[in-house]
Design brief:
By secondary structure, the chain is α/β, with parallel strands linked by helices. It has a single domain, classed as Vaccinia Virus protein VP39 (Rossmann fold), CATH 3.40.50. The chain is 32% helix and 27% strand. It has eight helices and ten strands. An eight-stranded mixed sheet has the order 5-4-3-6-7-9-8-10, with helices on both faces. A two-stranded antiparallel sheet has the order 1-2. Helix 2 packs parallel to helix 3.
């Protein structure tokens, strides 16, 4: 007797939504197509884009642009900012370029296909923002583009630090998202050039959970360090009030 396997409608709908989200992520004022990019839209990158202070900044550099997410989030909040978004991977560069061109801020964002180590613009920046690849000595993925996006084989932390020293204006700020161990390493690298943490946001998945990321702001000269904690979800596994407040200008359903 032939059996027919039927997928419950609610499961089918969930599968379709998950598949659709892999191709396109819709925000309130822009959308991210990500079918060609190895690094998809993720929660911690969105937290970085919403947390980093961009008001009062007229020229920003995004190192490792990926899909263009951080550049677009910054452009939404600052109507005067000019942004250069640098990406080494060809597929991600093409994706970022398309996302920027389809956004309301295409005239203020320039997407550059280059390795940051070789990038030599005619100007420097008062804000540098980065969600860099940070895995060290981990198993590599089958796809080279995934290794470029996730592993430090094309951009090590010392190389990132050197790029920041070279491209940041005196008095400028560098904001970076890293896991706790790599964040500690970056503190040491920045200190060699006289840049020190002034702000740290400690990010946790949920109340009582393990710290997953640290977003650090560096400026020249030792100053008092201010620190905050962000729990993405509360004890009831719902988005926390702080997370909703931070991402509400961007997320479609908050």
């Amino acid at each position: 007797m032939k059996r027919t396997f039927r997928v419950p409608f609610y499961l089918f709908g969930s599968y379709l939504w998950s598949f659709y989200a892999q191709l396109l992520f819709q925000f309130k004022q822009f959308r991210i197509r990500q079918d060609r990019a190895a690094m998809k839209v993720c929660t911690d990158a969105c937290v970085l884009g919403a947390w980093a202070e961009v008001n009062g900044t007229n020229r920003m550099l995004d190192i490792g642009a990926g899909t263009g997410l951080l550049a677009l989030m910054a452009a939404q909040r600052n109507a005067a900012i000019l942004i250069d978004a640098v990406e080494i991977d060809g597929e991600a560069y093409g994706q970022a370029l398309g996302n920027v061109e389809a956004s309301p801020w295409a005239d203020r964002i320039r997407v550059v296909h280059a390795a940051i180590q070789m990038y030599n613009p005619a100007h420097r920046y008062n804000l540098v923002l980065s969600n860099p690849p940070f895995f060290q000595n981990h198993l590599r993925r089958p796809e080279r583009s995934q290794n470029v996006a996730l592993h430090d084989e094309t951009l090590t932390l010392p190389e990132l630090a050197q790029a920041v020293f070279r491209l940041l204006l005196p008095g400028g700020r560098f904001v970076v998202l890293l896991p706790p161990f790599q964040s500690c390493q970056m503190d040491g690298l920045m200190a060699k050039a006289g840049l020190f943490p002034t702000e740290k946001l400690h990010v946790y998945d949920y109340t009582g959970g393990k710290e997953i990321r640290i977003i650090t702001t560096y400026t020249i000269g030792a100053r008092q360090l201010r620190e905050w904690v962000l729990y993405i979800r509360d004890a009831d596994n719902q988005y926390s009030e702080e997370y909703v407040r931070l991402l509400k200008p961007y997320y479609l359903y908050l």
